[in-house]
Amino acid sequence: MASLGSAALVLAFLAAVFAALAALIGRHGNRRWIDVSRRTVYAFCALITACVAIIEIAFAGNDFSFNIVQQHSSIETPTFYKLAAMWSSQEGSLLLWAWVLSIASSAALYATRDKLRELVPYATAVMMGVAAFFTGLMLFAPNVNPFATLGPAPADGIGLNPLLQHPSMMIHPPMLYSGYVAFTIPFAFAIGALVTRKLDAEWIRATRRFALIAWAFLGFGLLLGARWSYTELGWGGYWAWDPVENAALMPWLLGTAFLHSIMVQEKRGMLKVWNASLIVGTFSMALLGTFLVRSGVLQSIHAFGDNTVGPYLLGLIAVVMIGSAALIVSRLDDLRSEKRIDSLASRESVFLVNNLLLVALTAVIFWGTFFPLISELFTGNKASLAAPWFDRYTTPLAILLVLFTGIGPLLAWRRFSWASAKRVFVRPAIVAAAVGVVLLLVTDAAHKPWAFALFVFAAFALSGLAQEFWQGAAARRSISGGSFPAALLAVISRNRRRYGGYVVHIGIAVLLIGIAASSSFQTNRQVTLRPGESTVVDGRKVTYVRPTESVNSEAVTLGAELEVEKDGSEFALFPTRRYFRPTGVTTSTIGSYFQGEADSRIGLKAGLRSDFWTAVEPDISAVQRRVRAAEQGFKACVGGTPGTPPQCLALAAMMRRAAAEPRLRPAALAQIDALEAATTKRIAHSYLNDNAPATFKMIVNPLVSWMWIGGLIALAGALVALWPSRRKALRGAVAETEADALKEAKYREIRDAELDHAAGKLSDEDYALLDAELRTEAVEILDRLDEKREKVPQG
Amino acid sequence: MDPQRKRKIRLVVALGAAVLLASALVYTSFTASTEAKEPSQLLGAAPGTSYDMTGTVVRGSVHRNGDSLRFRVADREGEGRSIPVTYSGTIPDPFRGGREIVLTGQVSQGTFVGQPNTLVTKCPSKFTTKNG
Fold first, then answer.
1. Residue % of chain A over a pLDDT of 70
2. B102 plus B39 within the same structural domain
3. What's the gap in Å between the CA of B24 and the closest CA on chain A?
4. pLDDT by residue (tens digit) across B2-32?
5. Average of per-residue pLDDT across A358-371
6. Can you give the C-alpha Rg of chain B in angstroms?
């Protein structure tokens, strides 16, 4: 099996190299070479899929002759985690990278198979160049070949670290990787566009969906990571400005900026240098994220292994950044804007401001993340920056961003008069002011000015967005009648990109409300209680009712039953702490339970108003004393020391016979195991009567649930924007030619303007001007189309 | 105003804001950061200054006393001398002897006193090296 996998990996590497070369040979319009190249990419995808399948089969079938399986799985590892164990390893995560890339590349090339003929060869070369890099890394870098084998296959594996055995392990890493990797596609097409100097919005239209998919995956991955941290680690936080978290956030922020500014290029032919630079930055950040986890250059709670692939990745990042920068500079003349911004009060100029904010945010996080290296360079000392430093900059920037998530959608493209400004801004401003007054009167929000500002701006944004939906539906109704919900659905499904984007904005505003409330108004207490004692946390009476315990072959679990009471209603929570046996220990000794990992299973009562979160740290000193005594007693017993109980003497005699006769050994070992298990159970049980104190960490987190809800709303919005419209699906390929695509885009702009006018965002004068402008542009495109059509039969 | 001039002003404003942000970043990061030191460097460190200590928890040195924790931390590489540490506050799940930690605190009478809730323990597992 392993040799089959190795062969597939070698073939995949050759396929990637060949596909890149074939694409370059066919770059001047040689259809056959381009077709060959595309099909080789499909073959690459099939080969890498086979590699993944072989690894997963080996995991599922406990084939410990595979080094990767032996290191990251064991017979006892649950099947679910066996399948997820692949990406807990360095080599498996590289394979995952290559796999996702192979799928994304195939999809991108399939979608563009009859289009963009000049650009696709270069894009293929870039995608397969990256693919060849990652495949080659697995083949040629030391210690990262997933098909490395062990001489004689061991009987069992080391197992997957219990801290990683969490359902999120199945989807969190693949989501993040899919996000990182899918940004390769728009990057590759951008490079293609730069090389061929085809710098209109073609490459953007072809890859916009991939950028959005990448953005959605990465965002969802981040959200899952935050959730994992909140519910699994006995810490109670969801974000720590840890380098690895930052590394995933930075490409997401730049990707967000990119998704906005490409709209300006699509509609107005502006910001071309900016867009090309943004996608290069986003892809570099994605590579940097991949690199950071594997390099050990920065201190992080996320584990960093040996530095075997770090230098290669750094090399790739350098090539990508320097090469792209040189390419952009050499193409500056072709990247000039087709138009200028008409008015400072237009959607495109707000997009520009939002872009600057997002880039500033990324710059701050980048500086903070890499500060240890920067300071080492200047002072010779690795000094690091903690969360408060990050908060100081990111908080005001996030607050401004929320404001702009509200302002942007209210403005029309191109121009905007102050008369219409009054119309669209008045209601949201009144709502925001009202929310502000209520917050000041009813809550203590005034003590936290930043959070207060965020709440007010979020109220502005949310009411502005609600108004958008309302007016969109009303405009639709005035045109075609029908009930209000039907009109709302119709207007959304006819303008998926626009309203999908608005839904994302709602989600982000809600998410930021959750973050601001939970970080500013959190109550965080650490209390040591004995059974029966109570304490009060933020108006809740918390009683430590009784200790709990349980034992299985993997872990001893000690915990507590807590009763939480507020305003007459009460609920119980059962936080525990699990003490695992070290992974890879096959024979039991009693003490081994307290020598392995330990983790907290938190008690969480989630609610829309607030969460009550608790973790327990039992005082196990008495238990540990008993464990030591039992171990000594056990040794004495098995050794047959005179004076031990008769069962011990019998056991010792049995051991002596087993030593002479191997046939008896399993029975003797089973006897010992049983005795040890019984002793462990007894000791764990004794914890119940210890009356031992336990330390509880208790957190009351207001509105934190809205963070997850907001994230899911944003994800749903991305799906709305991604969903293909039925008309397009019926016609098969989106548009036959670039001119057709242009025509489509222009028609959409005309419809947009119509909607903006009907919704009151454009004054009658502005609309008349804009509509005339757009129609002239549309006629130009149609003329060009006709010219082409006439030429085709002759040429 | 003619558009050329307008564009120039806009550019200057944008660049000005960028420079302002950049200098603020540089200034605050050098003043707000805490120096990272290893235990062997901390043994003679001046009291009253905050440091980020990075090192490995000495196996078998962890003692818990109610809410507070006492243990020793040694340099990551080699068998350097270790420093006694006291700490109270949140203890991350992966914390135990043999693990690498980062802790912010000050040196007081030869003991490193950790600030509550600043203990970071490196996750042991994700991309472990062979036999690590």
1. 93
2. yes
3. 10
4. 667 777 787 888 888 888 888 888 888 888 7
5. 92
6. 22
* Any domain includes B105: yes
pLDDT band per the 50, 70, 90 thresholds, residue A511: very high
Q: Do B36 and A619 touch (CB under 8 A)?
A: no
Q: Which two tokens stand for residue A633?
A: 């007693």
- Contact call for B92 and A233, based on CB within 8 A: yes
Residues B50, B64, single domain; the answer is: yes
Structure tokens that stand for B50 in this block: 């905050």
Of A392, A621, A697, the CB nearest to B90: A697
Q: How far is CA A3 from CA A68, A89, A98, A367, in A?
A: 14, 20, 19, 45
Which residue is it, tokens 């040890």? A676
Cβ–Cβ < 8 Å for B92, A233:
yes
Residue B28 in contact with partner chain A when CB distance is under 8 A: yes
- Residue A13 pLDDT greater than 50, yes or no: yes
Minimum distance, in Å, between the CA of residue A510 and any CA atom of chain B: 28
Distance (Å) from the C-alpha of residue B19 to the closest C-alpha of chain A?
A: 11
**Does B46 touch chain A if contact means CB atoms closer than 8 Å?**
no
Q: Are strands B68-74 and B82-88 parallel, antiparallel or unpaired?
A: antiparallel
pLDDT tens profile A143-171:
888 999 888 888 888 888 777 788 888 88
Adjacency order of strands within the sheet including A523-529: A523-529, A694-702, A610-618, A603-605
Name the band, by pLDDT with cuts 50, 70 and 90, for residue A585.
low
Judged by DSSP in three states, A558 sits in strand
B10 falls within a domain:
yes
Q: Give chain B's end-to-end CA distance (angstroms, integer).
A: 68
Residue A259 is classified by DSSP as: H
Judge: B96–A598 Cβ closer than 8 Å, yes or no: yes
**More reliable by pLDDT, A36 or A785:** A36
What φ, ψ does residue A558 adopt, rounded to 5°?
Answer: -115, 140
What would the pLDDT profile of A640-677 be if each residue is shown by its tens digit? Answer: 676 667 777 777 777 778 878 888 778 877 877 788 88
Q: Judge whether B57 lies within some domain.
A: yes
Output the DSSP codes for A358-386.
Answer: HHHHHHHHHHHHHHHHHHHHHHSS-EE--
Among A162-176, A368-382, A497-511, which range has the highest average pLDDT? A497-511
A310-321 pLDDT per residue, tens: 788 889 999 999
Helix A184-196 × helix A120-140 angle, to 10°: 130
Give percent helix, percent strand, percent coil of chain A, each to the nearest 5: 70, 10, 20
Using a pLDDT cut of 90, give the percent of chain A over it.
43
Report how far apart, in Å, the C-alpha atoms of A225 and of each of A62, A80, A230, A252, B9 are.
28, 19, 9, 14, 43
Number of domains in chain B: 2
Place of tokens 């003349």: A333
For residue B24, the enclosing domain spans 1-33
State whether residue B13 sits within 8 Å of chain A by CB: no
Do both B51 and B105 map to the same domain?
Answer: yes
Q: Is residue B48 part of a domain?
A: yes
B62 and B86 housed in the same domain: yes
Q: Which residues pair with B69 in a beta bridge?
A: B64, B87
* Same-domain status, B29 and B93: no
For residue range A332-356, list pLDDT tens digits in order: 888 887 776 666 667 788 888 899 9
Q: Same domain, yes or no, for B40 and B27? A: no
- Is B47 found in the same domain as B112? yes
The stretch A253-271 carries a mean pLDDT of 90
What's the confidence (pLDDT) of residue B68?
Answer: 80
Q: Is pLDDT above 50 for B130?
A: no
For residue B116, the domain's CATH number is 2.40.50.140
Domain ranges of chain A: 1-165, 523-705
Residues B28 and B39 placed together within one structural domain of the fold: no
A chain contacts of residue B104, beta-carbon cutoff 8 Å: 386
Cβ contact (<8 Å) for A599 and B93? yes
Answer whether A163 sits within 8 Å of B94, measured CB to CB.
Answer: yes
